Amino acid sequence: MNRTTSRRASLRNPLWFFTELLDQLARVAGWVFALMVINMVGLAFWNEPLAKLILVIFMLSSMLMTGLYSVFGFERILGLGHVFWIPLLGYLIVQLQQVEGLFAGYLLVLSLAIGTSLLFDIRDVGIYLSSKRARH
After folding, report:
1. What is the pLDDT of residues 32-85, one digit of tens each?
2. What pTM value is reported for the model?
């Protein structure tokens, strides 16, 4: 068996992510599901171009995260899956000043959720990378 074949054999099924998520602390699983719901609320504002962008970035992040999960498992490195949220958050903050009504409320909630998640992600990825460096 060559190196490529053995690497493929060790990849996890990305659908196991949800099974492993449910094995996490209730607050972790709850937070992840809340983030998913908050992002999907963008469907209610489908006529807004920004809502479409939010959903596209959510889908890209989901694909990246499942790819990371396939390689690393349920590890702190999964925080890298939200890397697309960094520029999105800056854009949301700018756009918040130009919208009003329910959509503005949604963008505020989404911005707070994404910002909070990114703080956890930065910490988690830092811990993951530090632990890898300490082992080598």
Report:
1. 999 999 999 999 999 999 999 999 999 999 999 999 999 999 999 999 999 999
2. 0.86
If you count DSSP H runs as helices and E runs as strands, how many of each does the chain have, helices first?
6, 0
pLDDT at 10: 83
CA pair distance 57, 34, nearest whole angstrom? 16
**Residue of 92, 88, 69 whose CA lies nearest to 10:** 69
Q: How many other C-beta atoms are found inside a 10 Å radius of the C-beta of residue 78?
A: 21
Q: Residue 72 class from Cβ within 10 Å (0-12 exposed, 13-18 middle, 19+ buried)?
A: middle
- For 44, phi then psi, to 5°, come to -65, -20
Quick check: 73 and 99 in contact, CB under 8 A?
A: no
